[in-house]
Amino acid sequence: MTTRLKVKPEVGFVNEFDFNEETLTKMKILELNKNESILWECVESNPEWVGTKVSFHLAEKNRATTLFLNHSGWRELTDCNNWSMFLKRLMKYCEEQITQY
User: Fold this and answer.
1) Pairing mode, strands 64-72 and 14-17
2) Segment 51-60 long-range contacts (CB within 8 Å, at least 24 positions apart)
3) Edge-first strand listing for the sheet containing 14-17
4) Contact 16/7 with Cβ under 8 angstroms?
């Protein structure tokens, strides 16, 4: 999780994320469907991410929500696998929020 960010839920806005790493990540919002999906284009980050697109889609079924993630547009196969780390952090954060209620 990070508290160092600049975000706005608006198509065209460039969100900025800093996960206490050397590289600032900037994602431009291309599509936004409130409470359903978002599509980003990476405009600044690790070089292998720039120009790629990331989409998140939420689907609810039987009182459970599933998160679908797609990261596309890679120029070549790399060993960059930050999503597993990010999603584990997200899951931990969500679980902590649930236990507070």
Assistant:
1) unpaired
2) 51/75, 54/27, 55/31
3) 5-6, 14-17, 25-33, 37-44, 53-61, 64-72
4) yes
- Rg, C-alpha atoms of the chain: 14
pLDDT tier, 46 (very low <50, low <70, confident <90, very high otherwise): confident
The full set of domain ranges for the chain reads 5-99
Q: How confident is the model at residue 37 (pLDDT cuts 50, 70, 90)?
A: very high
Cβ-contact 42, 49 below 8 angstroms: yes
What are the CB-based long-range contacts (under 8 Å, 24+) for 2-11?
9/34
Fold (topology level) of 5-99: Alpha-D-Glucose-1,6-Bisphosphate; Chain A, domain 4 (3.30.530)
